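Reminder to self: keep the SMILES exactly as supplied, no canonicalising. Ligand is zinc ion.
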Amino acid sequence: MASNRKPFSVGEIKCTAISDGTFSYPADWFFSNVPKEQLEDSLRDHDLPLNQIVSPYTCLIVKTGKHNVLIDTGADGLAPTTGDLLQNLKAEGITPEEITTVILTHAHPDHIGGVLDTNSKPAFPYARYIMSRTEWHFWTSHPDLRSTGMDNHVKDLLVTCARKSLPPLTGCVELLDGEKEVVPGVHAIPAPGHTPGHIAVMVSSANAQLLHIADAVLHPMHLEYPAWRNVFDLSEEDAATTRQRLLDRAAADHTNVLAYHFPFPSLGQVVKRGNAWRWEPLPFDPLPPRTG
Ligand SMILES: [Zn+2]
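Structure tokens returned for the bound complex:
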């Protein structure tokens, strides 16, 4: 089985986790308030490099029978190591024309970087694009990123990408307010903090569920150390509240979870441990039934 595509089921719904690639970030962008020594100890404990966080970008295909939903579009053009979504979709036998719905969890470049083709037209020509109204208005007006710890060149990159990528979607974008069924079996759930209109997505069928938490958590170590911050969250307070709500729900229900930036295929369960959590990657073939 290819290491960049992972088919699995959620009840009757067929899903495939599809890699868009990976990108290397300075470790202190992912863990911005952690003393260097403590961070290095923890990275060592996890057998991870000390200076760079190699972060996967994992898109998700959800085939409900009637609809082919794509959740997030990767980061075409960001780096030579990103932008693999279309070729991996093709290898999975899916053409852009077959995608009926594109859900954008938020408007950061690693999630909307694949919405347009080389002619600046929607890359999935017959899809309706779904996004939070709050998110759309934030990025298409004058986004205030002062509360984040990002370098100025990163802020510029974010704003430039949104200004380039979003306007051509006018006409095929549908903006959401609050929790909403996007197609039967697929619900968008407000999850603000990382960005103002960041959403999570719940996929449900029969007795099974998959909670896609997008960027509510960026790295498994954030589960173990809930006080550890990253430079990207626009509102640390809202992000912390959202994390607590989503993770406690996932842990209590033993829900299978997809986290966009976790090691591919980015699927696992969240286990409550005291006031924190632990990430348990899912064993595969076949995906175990939901327990509890
Ligand atoms: Zn992201």
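Points to follow up:
The pocket of zinc ion is lined by residues 108, 110-111, 215, 260-261 (CB under 6 Å).
Residues 236-253 form the longest helix (18 residues).
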